[in-house]
Amino acid sequence: MKNSNLKNARKLNREAQKQITGGDKVLVCSASGCYNDYISDGQGNCVVPPCAPPNLGTEVKNANGRWQCCY
Known about the structure:
about 25% helix; about 25% strand; alpha+beta; about 70 residues; 5-stranded antiparallel sheet
């Protein structure tokens, strides 16, 4: 791999990390309803990206017996 490609990959990685963590911006949580893909704290609270605490939802078991994160 050429040095220029390696430098570009590192730069892209830093940019991706900023996007994942929200960078310098505060991400707005516009979640409403129930979601199958979420992150749980194990205490019944959950969050759906790009939401972050304190915008927590509640884990709820649906009619099919599957857990969801509901706002």
